[in-house]
Specification:
single chain, 544 residues, Na+/H+ antiporter like fold, 3 domains, 20 helices, NaH_exchanger, antiport
């Protein structure tokens, strides 16, 4: 019963955080509010939450990474795959080496393998934190796609480096060849597990639907279970469950293009996933806040290992490590941009200058999050000889401090850094949207004309004018979409379109109020009311 109460309290804290966030300055991201509420729960609660890292990874990460992989723009991933891979893998290795030596130099009592383990676990950026910060900062779309792609892939590389650093601390030995082969297996087998399981489950589900029909809710439940299945299969193969969940999400986005899912299923599934995403994101950060008081107390006791008695050294270490991570990231991003410009020069392509503000924005946007917390809590309690694992509490404290400081720095500095900057819209996006709308409208008109003829031939008893009139009304709607607009009148047409949108929204709101009023006075049943309001809501969603 206590566990259920804790879960309910944390879910209530997530709900409260969304409203508290609206009362605070816009620069404060939602994760910081949720961390604060978690710390408040820990202060008022008589018993804390024993966070099991393996359970945490299984429950929280697969669905969230699956959804991120599903929804991230694939065109952006493919277009900037070189930059994303450089950040997701090259930057992680660069950070582990650079930050590892920095930490060992600052804290000689922390063995070098443990310092590398700490550097490895703080190297991955967090997709949830990045998305939350981006919601309140005007980050360019292309940069946002790169940051999201990086955060999806660098979890695997960071956790692999962390695993080998911990193994070196436990055994005192490290094999580069074994590490490289293991890394390849983790990546290849993890991706294969995610892709394979998604394809198999999708094929089985389609076969069942084709032969037995589609039970209500069943496709949504299957969709929710896919990321957990991919994660567990990959873990059984000793591969990366995180990459398996991401690969399953990316595969699902391509499976979705087949269009086999019913429209009603897609609408309901989207609502379910939005709720799951909001709940799990929030609970993760509330849990982080709930863990902080105990972590701080344990870290204070471990200061003697570093030879210092003053607790302010903890703060100094945390800020120094965060500063080192930011500096290493900025150096790598700058070098990556210089390499891109050099390639453009060789290929005689138009070259772009490195903008300092965007370079700093890319550096600061690499916030750390709950994956760092969950990973660092998997540190062993003792060495094989039974002695305590060196500097374990201090390592956990420093990792949590880096999470908090990176979130604070990004949430405070990014809005000010990017304030006043205007980013041109990506023209290819508008062109693609126009192309899709026109192609869809032309296909719709052809289908209407064909269906009109079929209906007239099959129903000879009806008035011959009924189907042509109905077809004319529907075709008029699509012809409006196909209306050619010359460049001189485009601005006026856009204003007209905007005005029409406002008028339609006002009309839909009036419709909804009337339906609710009729239901309140028992002029129509609740069932009819829900049906009509759903139709109005779906229509309104098109114009929002």
């Amino acid at each position: 019963m206590d566990s259920i109460e804790v879960v309910l309290i944390m879910l209530l804290a997530v709900v409260a955080s969304a409203y508290i966030r609206r009362l605070l300055p816009r620069a404060i991201p939602l994760p910081l509010v949720q961390i604060g509420l978690g710390a408040l729960i820990a202060a008022k609660s008589s018993h804390g939450v024993d966070l099991e890292p393996d359970l945490f990874f299984l429950v929280f990460l697969p669905p969230l990474l699956f959804l991120d992989g599903w929804r991230i723009p694939k065109s952006g991933l493919l277009r900037d795959k070189g930059t994303i891979l450089e950040l997701a893998f090259g930057l992680v290795v660069f950070t582990v080496i650079g930050a590892g030596f920095l930490i060992h130099w600052m804290i000689p009592a922390m063995p070098l393998p443990v310092a590398f383990a700490l550097a490895a676990i703080v190297s991955p950026t967090d997709p949830i934190a990045v998305s939350s910060i981006a919601s309140s900062s005007p980050i360019p779309k292309r940069l946002m796609h790169i940051l999201e792609g990086e955060s999806l892939l660098n979890d695997a590389s960071g956790l692999v480096c962390f695993r080998f650093a911990v193994a070196a601390a436990m055994t005192g030995a490290f094999s580069l060849q074994t590490a490289a082969l293991t890394f390849v297996w983790l990546v290849v087998a993890g991706i294969a597990a995610g892709v394979g399981l998604t394809m198999v489950v999708t094929w089985i589900q389609r076969w069942l639907v084709r032969h037995f029909g589609e039970p209500p809710g069943s496709p949504i439940l299957v969709n929710l279970l896919i990321p957990f299945g991919a994660y567990l299969v990959a873990e059984r193969l000793h591969a990366s469950g995180i990459l398996a969940a991401v690969a399953a999400g990316v595969t699902m986005s391509y499976v979705e293009l087949s269009g086999h899912a019913h429209a009603n299923t897609r609408i309901q599934r989207s609502a379910v996933w939005d709720t799951v995403q909001f709940s799990l994101n929030g609970v993760m950060f509330v849990l982080l806040g709930e863990q902080l008081p105990d972590i701080f107390r344990l870290a204070g006791a471990s200061l003697e290992e570093s030879g210092h008695v003053n607790r302010w050294w903890l703060v100094a270490y945390a800020f120094a490590i965060t500063g080192g991570l930011l500096l290493l990231r900025m150096v790598w991003v700058w070098a990556s941009l210089r390499l891109t410009i050099f390639k453009q020069k060789i290929r005689h392509q138009p070259r772009h200058k490195i903008k300092l503000r965007l370079l700093l924005a890319t550096t600061l946007a690499g916030a750390r999050g709950t994956i760092t917390l969950a990973g660092v809590l998997t540190l062993p309690l003792a060495l094989p000889d039974g002695s305590p694992f060196p500097a374990r509490a201090l390592t956990i404290f420093l990792a949590c401090s880096v999470i908090l400081i990176s979130l604070l720095v990004a949430s405070i500095a990014l809005p000010r850094l990017l304030a006043g900057m205007t980013f041109p819209a990506e023209p290819e996006e508008q062109q693609e949207e126009d192309l899709a709308r026109r192609a869809a409208a032309n296909a719709a008109i052809s289908a209407i004309e064909k269906t009109q003829i079929e209906l007239m031939e099959s129903d000879s008893c009806v008035d011959p004018e009924v189907y042509p009139q109905a077809a004319a009304r529907v075709i008029a709607f699509y012809e409006h979409k196909l209306k050619e607009v010359d460049p001189e009148s485009e601005q006026a047409w856009r204003k007209t379109d905007s005005a029409e949108k406002e008028l339609r929204l006002a009309a839909l709101e009036a419709e909804r109020r009337t339906v609710f009023d009729l239901a309140r006075h028992d002029h129509i049943s609740d069932e009819i009311s829900r049906k009509l309001v759903r139709e109005i809501d779906l229509m309104e969603a098109r114009y929002r």
